[in-house]
């Protein structure tokens, strides 16, 4: 049975699927990269400058200044600080638990959710490549089965489909693996910086003027 038409259509579908998977994987990587860049300070020294300014404002009980400082930045730490001063009436322990929970749920969980799509693409691309390999080999063997003397050029399309789709699948997965590793390093740095920043902020509010905190 000659299944040339079937393998041709299956090959086109596989190429299209590989293209879509590659675009989706690249899109997810860019989105996660931009998200990490948006919520973290560019360097430890930049965060230290923010914390020094914040400490001075808290020490003087200038909560309006703290709000103005935090509202001017979309980064994770200033937004968590803003949430903290809005909930100081809950007490130190509950504020600490609240900030840690919100950081884990709103920042880290969101990044992990986006990265899970990249991981899916990394797994799917080689499998689509393998599918193309199987389809190509099926087409080649079907020609050998129905024809006694098969010219090599008649097998070229099927063999090329088998090899090209495999190569494309690997070419999609390998860069995404490297990109994911790089993003994970950036996320770990983000986690370390924010954890350190929250520790400093929580220490600030413990030492803040009690009457100022009560008025807040």
Polypeptide structure, described:
With 216 residues, this protein is mainly α. The protein has seven helices and no strands. Helix 4 runs antiparallel to helix 5. The C terminus is likely disordered.
Q: Characteristics of this structure?
A:
216 residues; mainly alpha; 7 helices; 88% helix; 0% strand; rod-shaped; disordered C terminus
State the end-to-end CA separation.
82 Å
Got a strand count?
A: 0
Number of helices: 7
Described by strand count, sense and barrel closure, the largest sheet is: none
Mean pLDDT over the residues? 86
| Tertiary shape | rod-shaped
Task: Extract low-pLDDT stretches.
Answer: 211-216
Radius of gyration: 28 Å
Which structural class do the helices and strands define? mainly alpha
% residues in beta strands: under 5%
* Helix share bin: over 70%
Question: Which sequence of SSEs, written as H and E, runs from N to C?
Answer: HHHHHHH
Short précis:
This protein has helices spanning 4-39, 44-59, 63-71, 76-86, 92-146, 152-207, 210-215. The protein has 216 residues and is an all-alpha fold.
Write the layout of secondary structure elements.
Blueprint: H1 4-39, H2 44-59, H3 63-71, H4 76-86, H5 92-146, H6 152-207, H7 210-215
